[in-house]
């Protein structure tokens, strides 16, 4: 009985391999050719996008989406070769899609966020953005994530879903950006003299534009000092180098004129002690 069972099982396996063997071999050949074809198509697509001067952000997104669609189409062809009916194949993909969708709700949100970013373009590759408490240059926008590089060389990957639903401060979208230097001076200084020194210093920087012209204003009268703000405009790409250079230049110019940064002072009077008695103690 056992011999007959194993003999029958062996015959069925052989028959099955003979029936499906050519299809499996053909499927393997199509798989190899399909992968090779996809690689060629992706190279052609990259060249077309480069020659058309497509934005880097859109280029990266299109490439990622194209790879996903091409491999999906390849698996569909392999299923048809192996004898899986189209209706059954679509049903399997539909069921798998629902299961994957429930398991990857965050990823689907990120995909939708990536589409919104590419459509409305709050930022693009190369922009300096501040988002989710991170400041850096956009390196890449994928279908699910966006990568930025910070000034200290860190790579931060942020989900597109969060980016599309949060405030994004794009600091290079506008061509020009204003530098604000907040300074403090004692009550004894002459505001007009301070203004003349600072403005002449700001104008010496090669990256400062002529219009709007640099200006200096008294911003606040504090308890111990006068708060002054000095402003000038530069191109957004030159903002941080110009900011640090201007701050240092203003400090050196004020030092050259003998103008010091004020130190908080507090007068203390003792009850029953007059000014005359204090002067005698000093003597």
UniProtKB/TrEMBL annotation:
Membrane topology classification: Multi-pass membrane protein
Keyword Iron-sulfur attached: no
Compartment(s) of residence: Cell membrane
All copies of domain Mechanosensitive ion channel MscS C-terminal, residue ranges: 184-261
Domain Mechanosensitive ion channel transmembrane helices 2/3 stretches: 66-105
GO molecular function, one term: mechanosensitive monoatomic ion channel activity
Keywords from the UniProt entry: Cell membrane, Membrane, Transmembrane, Transmembrane helix
Membrane-crossing residue ranges in chain numbering: 24-45, 65-84, 90-120
InterPro entries in alphabetical order: LSM_dom_sf, MS_channel_1st, MS_channel_C, MSC_TM_helix, MscS_archaea/bacteria_type, MscS_beta-dom_sf, MscS_channel_2nd, MscS_channel_C_sf
Similarity-based family: Belongs to the MscS (TC 1.A.23) family.
Protein name in the entry: Small conductance mechanosensitive channel
Species per Swiss-Prot/TrEMBL record: Mesonia algae
